[in-house]
Amino acid sequence: MTLSKCLLATALAFASIGSAFAGQNDTRMIEIYHIAPGKHVEFLKLIAQYDEANRQAGLPPRELYVHSDGGAWDFLLIQNETVDPAKQALVDAALKKLGAPTGAKFWVAIRQTIADHTDTVATGPTTAGDWLKKLEN
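^ that's the sequence the OP posted. Answer follows.
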């Protein structure tokens, strides 16, 4: 399955989760990871730290999807693209308290666990009818 077909199938599968994001920004970052050999647990532990920081800041964890068949990816993450600055300050404080790498140290830590990745920004979940209504405005 091509990456674009995978993203389309993923977007369609997630269309039913709209109520889980009620009141949140409708722009999502979708990240698809191919993990370096033997680094799957290390990657998940790193992501778990960031999810814990989100929890401590009152934000939801990233949505994690684990590859089971088809394309050449290992993990797919979906999260809000933007976070309210006040909430981001709480996330940053939680990350510091947890001892999680931030800034340039984050980029080194995450890249030690991945072979490659892609990310894209998407709006949704929505329906075709609701999207057509946006076009009318």
